[in-house]
Amino acid sequence: MTSNNENKEYTVGYGKTPVHSRFKSGQSGNTKGRPKRVANIKDTFLRELSRKVKVKEGGQEMKISKQDAFIKALINRSLAGDRHAAREVLVLIARLIGLDGGNGQTMDQLREEDIDIIQSLLNRRAEEK
After folding, report:
1. Is 50 inside any structural domain?
2. Nearest Cα residue to 71 out of 41, 96, 105
3. What is the tens place of the pLDDT at every residue in 54-87?
4. Does 94 reside within a domain?
5. CA pair distance 110, 100, nearest whole angstrom
6. Which phi and psi angles does 117 have, rounded to 5°?
7. Which end of the chain has less Cβ packing within 10 Å, N or C?
8. How many structural domains does the chain have?
9. Residues 6+ apart with CB under 8 A from 115
């Protein structure tokens, strides 16, 4: 198969499209481009948590993620005597180590006293609900 364009021989084949059906110079084949993905709430939330904020700690200013700042604030509030913050910290710890049925560590990796304390706190929380 040959096409005659301006008196030149041109073989049409794999990777060699006919001259008349090629994109014109300066024109894209997909003018609108690939459609943008719609952001869901999880992606938006995670993106916002990863943004950096300035925090002063020990008289020194540093930039940390909002997630780190949130956890620091929660732990500091619990250490200052806020019972609700302390309860949430303990619940998060229990989730992370797998005492609530999650995929964290097993109870075998903790000391018995730790297990008893966390289990009693979880039981109290369940009774409050």
Report:
1. no
2. 96
3. 999 889 999 999 999 999 999 999 888 888 888 8
4. yes
5. 14
6. -65, -50
7. C
8. 1
9. 99, 107
